[in-house]
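Field log, afternoon session.

UNIT: design team B
ACTIVITY: writing a sequence onto a fixed backbone
BACKBONE:
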């Protein structure tokens, strides 16, 4: 690893051009990864054989696109059939160091295993991301994601620690104690989900009569759920807490805990792991491969280049991203920059308009004084859809007389901005428990 600079954690890995990287690192690592999977994983041997691929094919001419896609349902079926860890595992039990579970928002949990080297490369990628987000050894970070098997807890903690920062393993819940701790230990950063801070601010004002902006926090490191890229929401958090809110932690525990974060130029999420993950972009409907060029929009598909326990090839993440640029940020990072638009299986078509549930966040967040920012899109199975129902958390302080007017105002704003008709219904503050896991923004109704 090259020497850390003010701007970059690993200058060699982070500034190598995509072309140079492909020529020198990507192909040898991919071939080694394929051979490792062939040797150790019955799951992959079966799938390679089903595609007519033999170990002798793993040479410089190998075309990754000859492999079929794999997704979470394949991995879950494997673990269900061969419990507890499945036939995907490519190492012996003696080499496994840690077991996590995925956050399980769309299905039952998947058990993720890490060897020592898997853990090390995960921490390296996470350290790049947090360094990019501005975490430094002079910082004290209170880390408020769940440590209960979720990689967002322990693994992200280790990534934060690797930057040299002091890290407080707080976890979730016990918000009152958290506020006391912030007052006594005076951390400079909080690492949490975006939806947690408005609730913590409420508690701070209501129970302690303290203005959150007077506390020590200078930076919020957001991860675990969408929201940080919503400009209105971010502004309201920054104003209320007098801190800088950073989208610092994008990743997925089945693949790599953290591989995206933004730098101080706020030019979208940088992809930090070109030596650890091979990214592809596909059209989620046709599955055609799309170029990773600025403006392209599609589902992110990831292949491990450096994984021992559970190597994945062409894993469909179902996250739809937009490529914002490649290698053109003033910070010098060469990987592509992207924004996460939403889940491909959540994409809605309402009166012919394609949209993601996260798109409503920008409008809901404009009413930070009256709304908590949490919401759900309520959908019936019937298509085509002419309108959607939006269930939005309203603050307890908003009285009944104001609620009708506010609903009509929000409906009008969304109609104007997104060209879709919505029917806003209120949920009382605290209805959606978004602190612990990624919220699923869609709820199906009968
Ligand atoms: Zn940058």
């Amino acid at each position: 690893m090259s020497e850390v600079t003010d701007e970059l954690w690993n200058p060699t890995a982070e500034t190598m051009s995509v072309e140079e990287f492909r020529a020198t690192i990507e192909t040898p690592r991919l071939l080694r990864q394929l051979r490792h999977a062939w040797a150790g994983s019955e799951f992959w041997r079966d799938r390679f054989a089903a595609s007519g691929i033999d170990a002798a094919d793993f040479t410089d001419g190998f075309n990754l696109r000859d492999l079929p896609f794999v997704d979470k349902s394949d991995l879950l079926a494997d673990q269900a059939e061969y419990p507890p860890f499945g036939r995907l595992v490519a190492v012996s039990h003696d080499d496994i160091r840690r077991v996590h579970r995925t956050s399980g928002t769309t299905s039952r949990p998947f058990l993720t295993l890490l060897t020592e080297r898997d853990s090390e490369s995960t921490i390296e990628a996470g350290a790049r991301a947090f360094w990019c987000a501005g975490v430094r050894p002079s910082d004290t970070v209170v880390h408020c994601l769940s440590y209960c098997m979720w990689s967002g807890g322990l693994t992200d903690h280790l990534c934060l620690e690797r930057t040299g920062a002091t890290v407080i393993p707080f976890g979730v819940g016990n918000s009152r104690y958290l506020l006391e701790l912030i007052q006594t230990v005076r951390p400079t950063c909080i690492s949490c989900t975006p939806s947690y801070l408005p609730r913590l601010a409420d508690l701070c004002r209501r129970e302690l009569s303290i203005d959150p902006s007077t506390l020590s926090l200078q930076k919020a490191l957001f991860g675990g759920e969408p929201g940080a890229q919503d400009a209105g929401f971010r502004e309201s958090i920054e104003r209320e807490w007098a801190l800088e809110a950073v989208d610092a932690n994008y990743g997925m525990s089945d693949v790599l805990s953290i591989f995206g974060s933004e730098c101080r130029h706020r030019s979208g999420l940088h992809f930090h792991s070109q030596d650890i993950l091979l990214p592809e972009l596909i059209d989620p409907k046709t599955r055609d491969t799309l170029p990773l060029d600025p403006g392209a929009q599609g589902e992110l598909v990831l292949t491990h280049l450096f994984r021992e326990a559970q190597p994945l090839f062409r894993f469909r993440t179902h996250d739809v991203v937009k490529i914002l640029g490649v290698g053109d940020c003033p910070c010098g990072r060469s990987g592509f920059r992207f924004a996460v638009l939403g889940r491909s299986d959540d994409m809605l078509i309402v009166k012919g308009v394609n949209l993601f549930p996260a798109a409503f966040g920008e409008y809901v967040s404009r009413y930070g004084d009256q709304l908590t920012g949490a919401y759900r899109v309520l959908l019936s199975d019937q298509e085509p859809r002419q309108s959607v129902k939006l269930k939005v958390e309203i603050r307890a302080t908003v009285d009944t007389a104001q609620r009708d007017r506010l609903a009509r105002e929000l409906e009008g704003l969304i109609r104007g901005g997104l060209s879709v008709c919505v029917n806003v219904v209120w949920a009382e503050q605290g209805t959606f428990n978004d602190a612990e896991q990624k919220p699923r923004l869609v709820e199906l109704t009968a």
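LOG NOTE: The chain has two domains: 1-276+302-312+321-341, 348-444.
NEXT ACTIVITY: expression trials, pending approval
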